[in-house]
Amino acid sequence: MNTPTSAELAPFRDTCKSCRAHILWATTEDGERMPVDLKPSSNGNVMIAVQGGRLMAGVLGRAPAARKRLLGVLLHVAHFATCPKANQHRRGKH
After folding, report:
1. pTM
2. Could you give the 3-state DSSP secondary structure of residue 47?
């Protein structure tokens, strides 16, 4: 899986309404929208790819994420983990 280019990511770029950080809006396997930090992280566990006109996000467990990073795959972090105001956006489980 190739890392998406800046041009491929452009349609998914946004700014967090709370902290003003640059983010990407991705879709999880469950069809949920997920804000992801724009820049890859050395501690990342979110793999992104553009598929069918959508930015898809796959959340990896600790060991699979470590293996991907060792292979040079650029991984991202869910913005909920880094946003200082993330609690303002959390929804309760029903």
Report:
1. 0.87
2. strand
